[in-house]
Write a structure and sequence with these properties.
Elements: H1 11-23, H2 28-35, H3 39-48, H4 57-94
Helix pairs in contact: 1-3
Length: about 100
Amino acid sequence: MSRRIRQNYDEEFKKNAVKLSYVTPKKMTDFAADLGIHVSLIYNWRKLYTQEGDKTRMAEQEDSLRQLQLENAELKMENEMLKKAAAYVCHEANA
């Protein structure tokens, strides 16, 4: 049984594919086949990049959300460590 290796495409490839997808006279399925990718990837990338290759508003908001979620997780961990340290210090002061 062969396993498919998931291909990762760099941002530049995605931007160029989106730009070309808007100007090509070919059907999307033919265009995607020429690039060696599934047609759904083109449509997903069109949600992320404009015709000019800039990030869409949705993509910028997703990036911002992801960054805020990471920051929130870090702050929660720091808060837990401070609670434990405060409990330890109070316990040592009472002993």
